Fold this sequence. Notes:
The protein is of the alpha/beta class and about 425 residues long. Helices cover about 30% and strands about 25% of the residues. It has 2 domains: about 1-20 and about 230-415, UDP-n-acetylglucosamine1-carboxyvinyl-transferase, Chain (Alpha-beta prism), CATH 3.65.10; about 20-230, UDP-n-acetylglucosamine1-carboxyvinyl-transferase, Chain (Alpha-beta prism). The strands form 6 sheets. A 4-stranded mixed β-sheet has the order 22-23-1-24.
Amino acid sequence: MDKIVIEGGYPLHGEIAVSGAKNAALPLMAACLLSGEPITLRNMPDLRDTRTFLTLLESFGVTWQKDGTVLVLDASSITNCEASYEMVKTMRASVLVLGPLLARHGTARVSLPGGCAIGARPINFHLQGLEKLGSKYELAQGYVDAKVEGRLQGGTVCFDIPSVTGTENILMAATLAEGVTIIKNAAREPEIGNLVDLLVGMGARIKGKNSDTLVVEGVKKLHGAEQEVIPDRIEAGTYLLAVGAVGGEATVTQCNPQHLPSLLEKLRGAGLSIEEGKDRIHVARKGPIKSVDIKTMPYPGFPTDLQAQIMALMTLSDGLSVIAETIFENRFMHVAELRRMGADIKVDGHSAIVTGTGRLSGAPVMATDLRASASLVIAALAAEGETHISRVYHLDRGYDDLVGKLTQAGARIRREKE
C-alpha cells in the first residue's frame, strides 16, 4: 500500500491543469448501455473509479478502446445484466447501470453499492423513480432485482431532495421509455448537463437542461455519439484551496470558472485574489486568511465535495469559521486527522466550529475517504515539517496524477510504499 509524504511550507507557482471530471465521466460511461452503437468520450480522466467502472462494463459484454484521454465504448453485445457485489463494492456510482440496463434490456440485477463511508446515501430515490416508470423490483440478499414488461412508461418523478445520481439514473431510463417523463426537483449539477448533452447527441429528446425540471420524450432507439467530459470542478477547487493554504500564485487551467460560483465567492471572502478567464482561474494569496462560514448545499450552492478541503484552509485563518454539512451525515471524519496536525475544530451535530490557529504541524495521518484525503494534502502542504498520509488509494479514486501536478507547481511531495 502506498503513502504520500509531504514537506510543507513551499508555496505553489505556475500552472496546474485540471483533468476530466470523475462525477461526469461515470454517468457518461453508463450511458453507453443505452445504445448498440459506439460511444466516444474525450477528456477521460485516468482514475481508479473509471478503471473500476470499465471492468464493470466489461462484465456486461461491453468492449472498449482507449487512446490517451479518448475512450470508445461498444455495448452492441450485452451478455449479462448483473452487476455483482465484487464488481461494485468499492464504488457507489455502479448504481448508474440500473436505469440504462432496465430501459434497454428490461432487466437488471445490481448489488447495493459501496464507495466512501460518508453516510447512508440510500438508493431509494432511484428505485421509487424507476417504479414510477413501470418497473418492478425486489431487494434480496444485498441485490436489487428490477424488471419491466415491455418498455418503461413515461411518468412524473418528483424527488424529495435533489439527488445527482438519482436524477441521472431516471434521466437515462426515461430516454427509452414510451411517452413523456417529467423529473421534478432534479439536481442541477454541471455533470448532469454534460450527460444531457451526450444523450441528446445520441438522439434523446430532453428539455430543461440546467434546470430543476427535466422533460424527456422517450424514443425507441438511441445511436452512437461523441462527447467531451467536462473539467473536474472539484479538482480545480482543491488546487485553488491548496494555493490559498500554502501561499503563492498559480493559474488553474483547463477548468470552467462558471462551475464554481460559490467557492470563488468564499475564496474572495477569505482574502484571496481571484481572476477568472474563459477556461482558467488565477489565484494568489498576499496576506492572512480571513475566516468565512460555509454551508454545503446542492448546486449552485457550496459543494459538499469541497467541504473537507475548505476546512483545511480555515484551520489557517485568523478567526472563527462555522462549517455546516447538510448533504451527508458522516462527512466530518477528516476532523480527527486535522486535529493531529494541530487544528482547533469542534464538532456539534452537523456543524464544525473551526478556530483558526494560523499554523499546522506535520504528523502521520490517515485518509478516510476521497475528499478527506485531499483536505489532508492541503493541510500538509501548509504545515511545518513532514506529513505522512496513509491509505491514499482513496485519493486515486478521484484525482488524476495529483502528486505529479503539485510537484510541477513547486510542492515537495512524493509517493512511496508504506
